[in-house]
Amino acid sequence: MRPVAMTEPSLGASASRGAAVTAGAQIFRIGIQLAGIVILARLVTPYDYGMITMILAIIGIGEVLRDFGLAQASIQARTITRGQQSNLFWTNTGVGLVLTIVTIGLSWAIAAFYGTPGLQPLTVVLASTFLLRGMTTQFMAHMARNLRFGRLSTAETVGQLVALGVAIVMALMGFGAWALVAQQVAQAAFTLVIMVMLAQWLPGWIDRHATIRPFLRYGVGVAGSQLLSYASRNVDSVVIGARFGATPLGLYNRAFQLMMLPLSQINAPATRVAVPVLSRLQDERKRFAQFILLGQFATLLLVGSITAICISQAYPVILVFLGPEWLDAAPLFQILAVGGIFQAVSYASYWVFLAKGLTKQNFYYALVTRPIMIGVILLGSMWGVEGVAWAYSLSLAVFWPVSLIWLSRISDAPAREMFLTGLGGVAITAAATAAAWGSSLLIPEGLSLVRIAVGIVVTLATIALIALIFPPVRRQMVGLLELRRHFRRSTAASDSTADPLADAPLPADVTRDPAA
Predict the structure, then answer these.
(1) I want to staple 190 with a disulfide (CB 3.0 to 4.6 A). Which of 159, 303, 496, 497 is the partner?
(2) Which of 171-180's residues contact partners 24+ apart within 8 Å by CB, and which partners?
(3) CB 409 within 8 A of CB 368
(4) Nearest in space to 502 (alpha carbons), one of 10, 87, 9
(5) Residue 170, CA distances (Å) to 121, 177, 440 in order
């Protein structure tokens, strides 16, 4: 059966529209997540948060195994048949089921490791998310592959909103840590249901004639590097929970999550838009470089602005959003925010690894750098929770240029330009942070909202001033406004000979079965 020919808009138009739709949805999702952080921090104690973090730090590794890189493999592939996509669905679902059973079996061992018996039943219920998310993986990949970002964002947003409502109701009823468990399970379940309704695709039964070996080979590299990355990102939580207990871990977790809120909500949609588009431009070096540099700058501009406010106004931010009982998390918040900007700088390197199919090299890179990061974090724990935070942040700062050197040896990616763009983003963030911090010294400590408001205004004004003074920054901002022009393709057939990308297809849809 041959793929059905479809009339599609240009890649540039779809990319820019997808970016706009996704960005709009992410702003709304950030609002939901921020509301959840603010409300639940006043209903659930640091100890309860620490309990859930203890579990997730260990069992979260199953999320990497559950996906096994097959979502990105499906998105990155030039073509995919219906049989292959069905086989990928059943593979993700089967792995999710196995992980659910294994996690239930390990629940007693996890509780014993931390010396906290109450973790065992919480772990059993959380285990169900592996199966639910395993079933969701290929529905998400199908919509991303076909650039249906609006539907994808709708499913994720509604699932997040319903889950937050469930958590708030249970927290008000005094369920504590169980409210946080219910939030995880409800989000996984409702997101699955809505994605099934919106995807306009249903998997068939296993097709023994449709091989998925190329996808598995791609996925091995992605999964291997993600496992190492996950271990390095979560060893801090495991160490703090085991050495210092649930309450310090709860404080660290809220500081970390508040720092990660803008990062995760910006990186996820940026990667969702960037990887499919870059995959189609991987043989067009000039346009590939244009897209990735503009994408990197846009990400840094957003993350840098938020990071500047987080570092300069950490104490009023914690006081307003989490409440006075969480103020001990403020210095951790500042330290981790330093690492956050370097993590954002590194996102573009990850896009290159995925878009160019360099998953094996990405695994080798992770195999070298992530164990070092784990060792540095273990060493940092000798200086307490703040030592762990500094070790995490400094590791991210050091490994960013290493990733670019690595890429320069194995690809034609514009590594030098990516370094200069990233360095400029870090410098802009540092200047905005200093200006916002200086402005806060003029305002009494009791006026937290005023301090935050002034910090936001000063941060944005500083960035605007830098753009006026320095032409390269101004050109990058103009480039963002004209992103669609960089990837515009003529719809007229006569123009296709002048532009080699003019008739380049969008990501191919799967072979359609009329009966589906």
Answers:
(1) 159
(2) 171/39, 171/40, 171/43, 171/44, 172/43, 176/44, 176/45, 176/48, 177/44, 177/48, 177/49, 177/51, 177/52, 177/118, 177/122, 178/122, 179/40, 179/43, 179/44, 180/40, 180/44, 180/48, 180/49, 180/52
(3) no
(4) 10
(5) 17, 9, 38
- Angle at which helices 384-410 and 330-355 pack, to 10 degrees? 20
Taking Cα atoms as reference points, which of 359, 391, 378 lies closest to residue 226?
A: 359
pLDDT (0 to 100) of residue 165: 92
| Amino acid letter, residue 344 | A
* Sequence ranges of the domains in the chain: 42-211, 224-487
| CA within 13 Å, CB half, 375 | 5
Distance of CA 475 to the CA centre of its chain: 27
pLDDT of residue 320: 86
C-alpha span between 57 and 118 (Å, rounded): 16
Distance, first Cα to last Cα, the chain: 14
Give residue 232's identity as a one-letter amino acid code.
S
Choose among 86, 365, 385: nearest CA to 229. 365
What was the pLDDT predicted at 202?
79
- Tokens matching residue 229: 């990355």
**Whether the Cβ atoms of residue 386 and residue 332 lie closer than 8 Å to each other:** yes
Contact 221, 363 (CB under 8 A): yes
CA angle at 125 for the pair 199 and 113, rounded to the nearest 5°: 125
The alpha-carbon radius of gyration of the chain (Å, integer) is 23
Per the structure block, which two tokens stand in for 206? 């296993």
CA distance 81 to 89: 13
Nearest to 390 by CA among 499, 504, 236: 236
Q: Note whether 279 and 76 are within 8 A (CB).
A: yes
Report which DSSP code applies to 488: -
| pLDDT lower than 50: segments of the chain | 1-9, 11, 14-15, 18, 486-516
Structure tokens of 321?
């959003």
The single-letter code of the amino acid at 272 is: R
Query: What's the token pair of residue 304?
Result: 């840098």
